[in-house]
Amino acid sequence: MLTDPSIEKLKTKTNSSYDLVMLVSERARQLVDGAQPLVPSDDAPNAVSLACREIVADKVVGVEGNVKCDVPITREERKRRQMIEEERRRKNEEDREVAAFDQENDVVGGLDALFATVSKANADDAEQEAEDEIDEEIEEDDFDEDAEED
Question: Most Cβ neighbours (<10 Å): which of 10, 65, 78, 88?
Fold first, then answer.
């Protein structure tokens, strides 16, 4: 249960309870994501209590409309985000290297297939030539046998 600050103090900071809930939840979300607290946070039990304290201290105010603001983040959060970004870059680089390697292997594989086809064709030609020579020898032998019989 929220006792510090009191609900009555919080209600005076916004136009409606809905606006208050939205403001507290958005600021608490920012704090959880690594935003730096704008008031001392030593004895705050959670991000919601800290957000309420910031609102009562007029460090955080609601603005009507769709407003995107930059919220300062802690050093730890900045380092964490940098590590995530570096890991993403490293993974993308590895993916590019793998893709280049695969593409090179596809080319080499295609050339290997071409060489295999040419080698098979050459082997087939050599086999056909050998069969033709054998056929010619058989025909010559048959011709010689026919000539001897006459």
Answer: 10
Domain 7-73 has what CATH class? alpha beta
Please report, for residues 85, 89, 103, 141, the alpha-carbon distance to residue 92 in angstroms, rounded to integers and kept in the order given. 11, 5, 16, 72
Q: With H, G, I as helix, E, B as strand and everything else as coil, classify residue 121.
A: helix
Backbone angles phi, psi at 35, to 5 degrees: -65, 150
Q: Write out the two tokens for 54.
A: 């910031």
For the chain, which residues make up each domain, given as ranges? 7-73
**pLDDT tens across 60-109, in order?**
888 777 766 667 778 888 899 999 999 999 999 998 888 887 777 666 66
1 contacts: CB under 8 Å, gap ≥ 6: none
Q: What is the DSSP string of 44-109?
A: --SHHHHHHHHHHTTSS---SS-------B-HHHHHHHHHHHHHHHHHHHHHHHHHHHHHHHHHHH
**AA identity, residue 110:** G
Contacts of 101 (CB under 8 A, 6+ apart): none
